[in-house]
Design brief:
The protein contains five helices and six strands. The protein is an alpha/beta fold and 171 residues long. The strands form two sheets. It has a three-stranded parallel sheet. A three-stranded antiparallel sheet has the order 4-5-6, with no helix packed on it. Helix 2 (28-38) crosses helix 3 (66-81). It is globular and about 50 Å long. The structure holds iron/sulfur cluster.
């Protein structure tokens, strides 16, 4: 909370990203009440994953089950809905609403296709997604000029990016 006080003192906008794990998955209403009490306007939840889940060739390993996460989101929704008068933006619910109203979801996982995002590591290595950080999926390196970030230089259309984009569309 000290960090947040610091951000507020300097008028820096921030969002809250809350990791949902075994210890808090049963406390959605309590968490939402805490956010409301603290005046947090933009919040986001993600289910806790094992670090191994960042290895693209291994299946995701989650700390909670889909049913537990579903119950958490349902309880959070009931608090958030507030009789039809939500007071905060909850990223997941905003994305669901976007889908229901034929608008493009903000989060890539709720879109029909992966966006052409570029993830940069500290050393300049570029990848198409932060779940695909491995030599097989490396697009280039912006520090060494292996490929530049200019689209005309091809980083967006690098072979690894094209292969990555095809995976999602080919189902
Ligand atoms: S693969 Fe990456 S970019 Fe595509 S939806 Fe999943 S997280 Fe988003």
């Amino acid at each position: 909370m000290k960090g947040i006080e610091h951000l507020r003192r300097h008028n820096v906008d921030f969002n809250i990203l809350s990791v949902i794990h075994k210890g808090n998955v049963g406390h959605a209403a309590e968490i939402m009440a805490f956010f409301a009490q603290e005046g947090f306007s933009y919040v986001q939840f993600i289910p806790c994953m094992d670090f191994r889940s960042q290895e693209p060739d291994k299946p995701g390993v989650y700390d909670i089950t889909p049913a537990e996460y579903g119950r958490f989101l349902r309880e959070a929704f009931d608090y958030w809905y507030n009789g039809g008068n939500p007071q905060v933006s909850v990223c997941f619910f905003d994305n669901m609403l976007a889908g229901y109203t034929n608008r493009e979801a903000e989060l890539c996982i709720h879109r029909a296709e992966c966006p052409t995002t570029i993830i940069l590591e500290q050393n300049g290595d570029a990848y198409p997604c932060d779940f695909y950080i491995s030599p097989e999926w490396k697009i280039g390196n912006v520090a060494t000029g292996e490929r530049s970030l200019r689209p005309e230089a091809g980083i967006i259309f690098a072979p690894a990016t094209r292969r990555f984009m095809r995976m999602r569309t080919s189902g």
